Amino acid sequence: MSKGQRVIFHVDMDSFYASVEIFRNPSLKGKPVIVGADPKGGTGRGVVSTCSYEARTFGVRSGMPISTAYRLCPNGVYLPVDMDLYLEVCERVMNILRGFADRFEQRGIDEAFLDVTRRVKEYDSPESLVKAVKKAISERVGLTCSIGVAPNKSVAKIASDFKKPDGLTIVTPDRVKDFLVPLPASKIAGVGKKTREVLKHMGIYTIGQLARSSRENLQRILGKYGVELWCVANGTDESEVYEGEQEPKSLSGEHTFEIDVDDVLMVTKTIDAIGARLAAQLRDSKLLFKTVTLKVRFEDFETFTRSKSLSYHMIDESAITGAARNLLKEFEEDKRKIRLVGVKVSNLQRFETSPPTIKKYL
Ligand code: TTP
Ligand code: MG
């Protein structure tokens, strides 16, 4: 690896919930194990959380109705979700991974990014460090994982999914382009159905086509997200492995007026000022929000909160202030003066490449 080049691992546990169940009950090994809702002989409601790779050969997948899974694989072993156990195992896995990283970032229940740029120098090669990580998880937790190694996070994430289960895919800096070019654009984290449709309209199906497409065009159609996608496709994603405090569950601001007010304009101006502050904090922390809550305290100290959840995670200041202003309308009829107003954004999510706003569909 050349100087200044980072070495990033993305680790993803294999069929996580199902593997934990098999570790708990080794007689299930080799069987199609399906974790999720009760199939009730094929009439059950609810979905599959995950399943073992043996069950996947029958076509069973995460998110599929459990009744469909039952039709595909009637002789499978169906187990309920035991979240407490999975969280306990998750914590043990993450503690092991943290010990191997210069910088560590957990993602979801069974994934993490490790920046090992310095650490890897203690090993013969990135491969020997990967083997050490896999060995530690296997010996101490009894599970397998798949690891992608690349000079940046987005490529490492795609690489960890490239070969599963128990996979190892190393993409050296000189191979990044060749690795990405033939893959479908949907392999990029965060590219779901909606973005796929937009890209399809632009004639873009593969990451290679995305990389060669016009950056300006993508920006015009998908906004900042379009530029992020273009960078990922060109292998130039430079986002850091984020090592932070526990992520905040919400961000909020409030203001108590010097004198209780009955002027709506004054209240909306204050809402706007708080909204602008929150939007800046969100940007700095790379967080999106989905829920906006308005707090209103009247002169007699009676306090109300009203919330609105948006259809997408967003980062825009106008989405915060717009939602909060709308919520304020609910108090229009109240003749009491307002003593305090507050705005909170919650239901937060980190973003690297997920779309804050899709400006326009073609
Ligand atoms: P994933 O890592 O997406 O899936 P996985 O670990 O089961 O399988 P893979 O080997 O392909 O990585 O998700 C991690 C866990 O999150 C999974 O074990 C169960 C849970 N999950 C759900 O509950 N519902 C879902 O739709 C998905 C995708 C995952
Ligand atoms: Mg997984």
Features of the shown structure:
alpha+beta; Alpha-Beta Plaits; MutS, DNA mismatch repair protein, domain I; DNA polymerase, domain 1; 4 domains; five-stranded antiparallel sheet; 13 strands; 36% helix; globular; disordered C terminus; binds thymidine-5'-triphosphate
N-to-C CA distance: 41 Å
Give the domain tally.
Answer: 4
Q: List the bound ligands.
A: thymidine-5'-triphosphate, magnesium ion
**Could you say what the CATH topology of the largest domain is called?**
Dna Ligase, domain 1
- What is the approximate shape? globular
CATH classification class of the largest domain:
Alpha Beta
Give me the side-by-side strand order of the main sheet. Answer: 5-6-1-7-8
Characterise the protein shown here.
By secondary structure, the chain is α+β, with helices and mostly antiparallel strands. It folds into 4 domains: 8-13 and 85-174, 2-Layer Sandwich (Alpha-Beta Plaits), CATH 3.30.70.270; 17-83, MutS, DNA mismatch repair protein, domain I (3-Layer(aba) Sandwich); 181-233, 5' to 3' exonuclease, C-terminal subdomain (DNA polymerase, domain 1, Orthogonal Bundle), CATH 1.10.150.20; 250-361, Dna Ligase, domain 1. Helix content is 36%, strand content 23%. The protein is built from 13 helices and 13 strands. The chain has helices spanning 16-24, 53-56, 66-72, 83-98, 126-141, 153-160, 176-180, 193-201, 207-212, 215-222, 224-233, 264-285, 317-328, and strands at 8-13, 33-36, 48-51, 77-79, 103-107, 111-115, 145-150, 168-170, 250-261, 287-298, 303-314, 338-346, 349-350. The strands form 3 sheets. A 5-stranded mixed sheet has the order 5-6-1-7-8. Strands 9, 10, 11, 12 and 13 form a 5-stranded antiparallel sheet that branches. A hairpin with a 3-residue loop joins strand 5 and strand 6 (111-115). Helix 10 (215-222) crosses helix 11 and helix 12 runs antiparallel to helix 13. The longest helix is centred in the last third of the chain and has 22 residues, at 264-285. It is globular, with a radius of gyration of 24 Å. It starts with 7 loop residues before the first strand and ends in a 12-residue tail after the last strand. The model is unreliable at 354-362 (pLDDT under 50). It binds thymidine-5'-triphosphate (TTP) and magnesium ion. Magnesium ion binds at residues 12-13, 16, 110.
